[in-house]
Amino acid sequence: MAKDKSGYIIAAAFIGPGTVTTASLAGANFGFHLVWALIFSVFATIVLQDMAARLGVATGQGLAGAMKDMAYKPWLKNLFVVLIVSAIGIGNAAYESGNLTGAAIGLDAFIDIGIGPWAAILGAIAIVLLWSGSYQWIETVLVYLVFIMAGVFLITLLVAKPDLSAMFNQLISPKLDTDAITTVLALIGTTIVPYNLFLHASLVAKSSKGLDKQQAVLACRSQSARAISMGGLITLIVMATAMMAFFNQAATIDASNMGEQLKPVLGDKAQWFFALGLFSAGLTSAITAPLAAAYAVTGALGLSDDMKSRSFKAVWMVIILVGVSVAALGFKPLPAILFAQATNALLLPVIAIFLLVVMNKSQALGQFKNSWKSNIAGVVVVGTVVGLGCYKLVNVFL
């Protein structure tokens, strides 16, 4: 993976079926009242991914390895290992089930054999691609499909002549209550994906070897900001089209009619095109999620991160199999995908706090340690996510 693609790989990783589904639900149910959560998510993703990229360039290793090396006491090192393995394992298993469910929904629109069988077939495809190591070209094709879909959403939005005044009024009237909190956490979880921090650091560490570190950091920072902002714009466009089709309308959004938001341009073919986009987004993320888990777990355990090593293969294999199993259990598709995103948001503070500590304490970082500005931004991000997570838990138990 070349250095000049890492930022776009990260953006493609979070533009999965969770993004399409969550953004559609947010727009359909809340209009633009939750755009504040998306704006925060894009800002937070840029801040955290910049830290991960600097870490990879400066140390030449991934986030998991850096965390473990920073722990001088054995008990702390063991704690890091347990938390990294459990957090990324649980998070990616949930995320993988959402990826496979979303892709299965897309395929089931073409050939109706059920979500479970399609999830199993997709899991097998992901296994074959990762086992061969030739997933890169497949990923590139699917990323293009996702961006083509984004273009159609944009054209649809323009043709539908959106009520810009209503959008602006909702934008400046942010909403956060018991009805909206799960969707807010899902928007955050689908954008600030914890596993992307591990994936980015590992990709950059490998691709920047032998390069000038200062130039590599500047290039990664610029590219990541562009790619992540583009991903945020795609999410916003999906929210807007769903808002125009469903918000304050008699119809309610579900898995069967989500593609209705594309009808102004595509007519009766809208559902099929939407299904194709959902499939391509799902398979892309279904490949990157287990890949990132493999980097994180092998780094934490001190095992080989070579894609052809047995330990590396074993980790992503477990993630895929768990994802297939959960997807095949028959959960309702949209709640399953939404739950996967919310789970990621609740796990995010654990990983983000560790990243902040590493970026301030690691001796290997040198000039690439966090500045006071980066620390303030990081604290704001972590504090906000922790606050939202606590708000969610309080409403669950009280």
TrEMBL record:
GO MF, one example: symporter activity
GO annotation (BP), single: iron ion transmembrane transport
Keywords on record: Membrane, Symport, Transmembrane, Transmembrane helix, Transport
The UniProt record lists the keyword Membrane: yes
Xref: InterPro entries: NRAMP_fam
Subcellular localization(s) per the UniProt record: Membrane
PANTHER family noted in UniProt: NATURAL RESISTANCE-ASSOCIATED MACROPHAGE PROTEIN 2, SOLUTE CARRIER PROTEIN FAMILY 11 MEMBER
Protein name: Divalent metal cation transporter
Species, as recorded: Alteromonas hispanica
The organism's taxonomic lineage, starting at the top: Bacteria, Pseudomonadati, Pseudomonadota, Gammaproteobacteria, Alteromonadales
